[in-house]
Every structure is written in structure tokens, then in C-alpha cells.
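Need C-alpha cells for this chain, all 115 residues.
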Amino acid sequence: MSDVWKARLAGASAGAVNGLFGGGGGMIFLPLLSGQLKDRRLFATCVAVILPICCVSAAVYFLRGGLSFLTALPYLAGGAVGGFVGGRFYGKIPTIWLRRAFGLFLLYGGVRYLL
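Here are the C-alpha cells for all 115 residues:
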């Protein structure tokens, strides 16, 4: 299988995960790209992938009547501020702490879903 088809399959998997669970599409790319990119570029690439995938998922949710903009609005405002602050700290936090924090978020999310 060519690299282009592997990338397309990974993108389709990320989109499916994002659509089914309402987020998390970028997590698909972490293990796939971890050998190809350095940590900081890896995290930035995964974040960059999230936006278009989430836009497509949100459009589908909206068309099917499952999206409430009023409920989402406070989270969007907080997310924009958090994204700005995180972007400003990009490159200033050691990657070991980024990996640990990401792992803890994954663990927390997994436990929450199981309970």
C-alpha cells in the first residue's frame, strides 16, 4: 500500500472517530506520525488536523439537527482563549511534560467514558 493511501486511510479513520465521538480525530495521527515527526511538530500537526475534521463533523451534526450553537458558544469562547494561550507557550514547555499531560488527558477521558 502506498504512503498516499496510508495517509488517506488514516484521515478517514480520524474523521470517523471525530464524527462518532464528537472529537478526538487528531489522536489517531499521534501514533501514526510519531516516528516521522519530532514531538513539537507532531503535536502541532495533530492540532492542525483537528480543525477541518471538526468543521466537517459540526456541519453534519448541524444538518441533522444535533447541534446547539447556544450550548456550544461558551465552550468556543473558552477554547479560543485556551488555543491562543497554548499557541503562545508553544516551544516553551519541555516535550516530556507535553507527552505526560496528553497521556493524563487520554487516561482521564477513557476513565470518564467507562464510568
